[in-house]
Amino acid sequence: MAQFNSGDVLSLCKRRGFLYPSYEIYGGLAGFYDYGPLGVTMKQNIIDLWRSIYVLEEGFIEIDSDIVGPEMVFKASGHAENFQDLMVTCKLCGEGFRADHLAQDFHPNPGALSKAELQALIQSENITCPLCKGDLSDIEEFNLMFKTKIGPGSGRIGYLRPETAQGIFVNYPNLYRYAREQLPFGVIQVGRAYRNEISPRQGVIRLREFNQMEAELFVDPADKSWKRFAAVKDEKVKLVPNSDEKEIETTFGVAVEQGIIAHETIAYFLWVTQRFLRRAGVDPTRMRFRQHLKTEMAHYAADCWDAEALLSFGWTEIVGVADRGCWDLSRHTQYSGAELMAFKRFDEPKEVERDAFKPKYGLLGPEFKAKSAKVGKALEGLEVSSLKDGKVEVDVDGERFVLTDKYFDVVRIKEKVNGIKVVPHVIEPSHGLDRILYTCLEHAYSTDGEYTRLGLSHESAPIKVGVFPLMARDDLDNKAMDLDRKLRESGIVTYYDESGSIGRRYARMDEVGTPFCLTVDYEVFENGTVTIRERDSSHQVRIPFEKVVDVMKALLDGKSFDGIA
Amino acid sequence: MAQFNSGDVLSLCKRRGFLYPSYEIYGGLAGFYDYGPLGVTMKQNIIDLWRSIYVLEEGFIEIDSDIVGPEMVFKASGHAENFQDLMVTCKLCGEGFRADHLAQDFHPNPGALSKAELQALIQSENITCPLCKGDLSDIEEFNLMFKTKIGPGSGRIGYLRPETAQGIFVNYPNLYRYAREQLPFGVIQVGRAYRNEISPRQGVIRLREFNQMEAELFVDPADKSWKRFAAVKDEKVKLVPNSDEKEIETTFGVAVEQGIIAHETIAYFLWVTQRFLRRAGVDPTRMRFRQHLKTEMAHYAADCWDAEALLSFGWTEIVGVADRGCWDLSRHTQYSGAELMAFKRFDEPKEVERDAFKPKYGLLGPEFKAKSAKVGKALEGLEVSSLKDGKVEVDVDGERFVLTDKYFDVVRIKEKVNGIKVVPHVIEPSHGLDRILYTCLEHAYSTDGEYTRLGLSHESAPIKVGVFPLMARDDLDNKAMDLDRKLRESGIVTYYDESGSIGRRYARMDEVGTPFCLTVDYEVFENGTVTIRERDSSHQVRIPFEKVVDVMKALLDGKSFDGIA
Asked: Of A64, A548, B288, B533, which one's alpha carbon is 20 to 30 angstroms from that of A316?
């Protein structure tokens, strides 16, 4: 097999209609790619597979929220402050660069350097503009969100979302209600997200406009066990734990027992991720899970793993699975004032102790007269956290009263409660859809320089079967078109082709990853059979014309090709 | 049936998870709506239906292009110049308003007024700010595209696309190649588009972020007949032609014959639109096609029709079908320099006459010596349109020569050609997805004040069948869950519910438009049957437990309920 690089894969993608560099007639736009006809179908296949796993098998619900959002949402999420890269600008030509990219010839891992360290390196090594050798500005933070203005006039500042997740968090009250106010519940979203890269590179790996599939699972913070974990714990997995950064092969169960993976819920969704990626067509020998280093992990994250794929540019993150703790909901509570909590009902009412106000009715009476009973009652209903500087405010029939602490004691009381309110923790499997699709393409790609084959999985392949008449005459074409229509009507995506030699037609289908081809030749008139050919083995067998739809369905469902003869 | 308005429908949508006003915990954001779990599924159902019509039945291909685009694309499309509303700003409070909205109490149709006329009206009527009574600024044009900056530093100006169509036009060379360089061919796209409304209103009808389904059909400008039109020409349609603006009922065929609809291709896609909308669930008695008035129509459009639905706010455009002529491709050719044409092959080579350069070799020889033959040949290959001020430039082996007209004559020649290049015309059916979905909801909505039913079409309904055990005990629940799983595995979306009375459960399903409910009661143990209930008739029949999946499939495929008993 000839060596190849990502350029070869992208060139096939453009030639055959998977991926087009955007705005090419206008000279292109770095960091933007369009999906062509085969790419759209393949992307939809991957989404459908993922959705069937999360919605049908795991019971998640789905939403579709807006891409443009108001500034406050991204202040709450932390993106307004922290979603940034370090940048230098050429004083001469005005071009901007990522500081760590310019430093990469001078340091083994410039991405890990602080702003001050990078600044010092650029100065000590006299790094200049790679385009015009001009002097560089000091390093500045560049926020990576695309900014816009909503409405006319002074308008409101808005941003294009940097991740689909926030649309789920801000809808928490609606979604919690939809989920009948029970934990755990999970929500997915598929859609565009944006990152205004300083210098995009690597084809579709680092895009400014990209597609995500994110799942947010809301769980009881006190219980991160997972019922279905027992069924998968013996499955194997390759892990790179952050303790020593060495790849190990183990099982999900052992990794949890040994404390390598923080808990069952994370481990279960790593398993879900692994199964999904394999079915989509990621090569199991070229994938692994790498745990974030303590220095990489967000301060609020309890554990975080990346599914990495080995690509021509090295190991690349394609999915992240993180325990984000209560960060997201707490921040949105803080910024919006909305209560984003879940009520955890006890199996039976529990007696709990808490601090409470005990009104001194003897003093309230003379002061508040007829209202004193109501004032006392209101005071009893307040949390003691509302006490500020020895005073507390109560609301009675729309009137406000300020009570100093001479009117009450704070006492420890016992009461029966049915449950408590908690801020759910969030477990987030977040998928880079474009990266996953590209990984499937690169892992499927092989070439000898002349003949190129995409060994796409049955589930990802945009065309499931090519349908050819041996010749476009003698009623063979009508028979083939009839077959083609039958297959389409049964929901199988076909490609009808009658031009060129059969060999060329097979080659064209192999090049776009079509797993099977059907050829209608003269034997159809003799014994009613047609030829079916499997892409990866090039093997051919004859099957009855009348059974084609059933055979194709069985093959696409995973039946082995050798079993159908 | 009680009267209702759009607020009632939107309130149901929010309560039951179809549509959520966006960013509600932050006080909301006008012109933005999110799709909840049932809304996502319903939207996906409508997209799937539309896609099956355009891709499977009509043979269109699909792409998915970027939302953010560079300025030049929208200069070419005309949006940078013309996609605008007339706006006034309050000098006191700074709020912006659409000038025509403020004028609506003073004129029957302020939207049709020119800028100067509106300005005069505002002055003569002393119209002030509706919020604070402040004085208003002069009218300004407000461009409705969301603007952003791509990349760091000075960056490039970018816009969020105002329609998905442009992504198809700028990919024309890729798509023409994918379509094997034949006309006609069609391309669809589903995705977000943006319109930075000055003052959004009417729920999801006038959104700032919305969803479109657009089809662009590229046709031979000299042939706008349509092969399959013959099969549909006798179907009925309600039209409001622009000649007298009166609604008529006729057939597509007659409308083309009488010159009401410009040609067969437009008429055919009006039929496709009508059939799609009806299947999605738009009430046929509340829809029609209205032809754009000459004054409304874009100057380049040959004909343009809106599919309108009657909603609680009056007749509302939900689809537009336009013949856009060569406008789009010509403009992008003009701005990009790329050749966006199709080669129209003649059935057999034709002799054509054209002007051509005839070199005077007697004069070229002495001047160009050894190169004179090549110079002459190059000249013969040029179009005479390259003649500027009596001079023409030729390229020979990388060298440029300027020839004055003493070196050539311009003569009329005859030659055989295999075809000609043409700029395809574009027929565009453009669908407002959110509006279509909302129309299906409003047309399906009925209420008596207590009990509310959504009579959604089988194809749009997000849940196809509710599955209930009569009681959550005595093995009835296990039987029902078994049934539920079987239905899901066969691809039918179900909702399992065991809480509350059966009547309440039916009511909950009716309210979200679920067409059927299955109840497992004690008879299942006696004679192996369960009850199936139809939403719209409330009729119930018993069917064998074992046949439920087949019966459900037949019903969803359109079999009548009375036929299954």
From this structure: A64
What's the pLDDT score for residue A297? 82
Greatest pairwise CA separation for chain A in angstroms: 110
Taking the Cβ of residue B67 and every Cβ of chain A, the question of whether any pair is shorter than 8 Å is answered with yes
- Decide the pairing of beta strands B494-496 and B465-469: parallel
DSSP B294: T
The count of other CB atoms within 10 Å of the CB of residue B229 is 19
Asked if B66 lies within 8 A of A32 by C-beta distance, the reply is yes
Q: For residue B37, list chain A residues with Cβ-Cβ distance below 8 A.
A: 61-63, 175, 178
Give the best residue of B23, B75, B98, B331 to mutate against chain A (max A CB count within 10 A).
Answer: B23
pLDDT in tens, A223-266: 999 999 999 999 999 999 999 989 999 999 999 999 999 999 99
Question: What pLDDT digit, counting tens, does each position of B29-81 carry?
Answer: 999 999 999 999 999 999 999 999 999 889 999 999 999 999 999 999 999 99
A with B: how many residue pairs have Cβ under 8 Å apart?
208
CA A45 – CA B200 distance, rounded (Å)? 36
C-alpha of B348 from chain center: 38
Q: Identify the residue among B66, B177, B489 best suited for mutation to test binding to A, counting A beta carbons within 10 A and taking the highest.
A: B66
Chain B residues with beta carbon closer than 8 angstroms to that of A487: none
User: Taking the CA atoms of chain A, what radius of gyration do you get in angstroms?
Assistant: 30
What letter does residue A451 receive in the DSSP assignment? -
Quick check: B71 contacting A, CB < 8 Å? no
SS3 B446: strand
B266, two tokens: 């437009």
Up-side HSE of residue A374: CA atoms within 13 Å toward CB?
Answer: 12
Lowest mean pLDDT among B35-49, B64-78, B213-227, B390-404: B390-404
Best mutation target among B26, B62, B102, B180 (most A Cβ atoms within 10 Å) is B26
Determine phi and psi for B535, rounding to 5 degrees: -55, -55
Average pLDDT, rounded, for chain A: 93
For A240, residues 6+ apart whose C-beta sits below 8 A from its C-beta are: A246, A247, A248, A288, A289, A290, A291, A308
> Which residues from A are below 8 Å from B463, CB to CB?
none
Interface of B with A in 419-448 (CB under 8 A): none
Q: B81: how many CB neighbours lie within 10 A of its CB?
A: 11
Cβ distance of B65 and A332 shorter than 8 Å: no
| Amino acid at the residue A561 | F
Provide the total of helices (H) and of strands (E) in chain B, helices listed first. 18, 28
The domains found in chain A, sorted by start residue, are 6-83+144-326+427-433 (3.30.930.10), 84-143 (3.30.40.230), 348-418 (3.30.720.200), 463-564 (3.40.50.800)
Q: Quick check: B148 contacting A, CB < 8 Å?
A: yes
Backbone angles phi, psi at B430, to 5 degrees: -120, 120
Residue A547: both structure tokens together: 């059974």
Cβ of residue B488 closer than 8 Å to a chain A Cβ: yes
Q: Cα(B281)–Cα(B458) distance, rounded to whole angstroms?
A: 8
**DSSP one-letter code for A388:** B
Cβ contact (<8 Å) for B30 and A332?
Answer: no
Q: Which of B443, B438, B456 is nearest to B516 (CA)?
A: B456
Measured between beta carbons, the chain B residues lying within 8 angstroms of A156 are 29
Nearest partner of B163 among B193, B143, B187, judged by Cα: B193
**What CA–CA distance (Å, rounded) separates A60 from A238?**
27
pTM: 0.91
State the ipTM, two decimals: 0.91
The single residue listed with the structure tokens 């709450």 is: A76
Strand partners, B357: B410
The three-state secondary structure class of B76 is helix
Cβ neighbours around B207 below 10 Å, total: 23
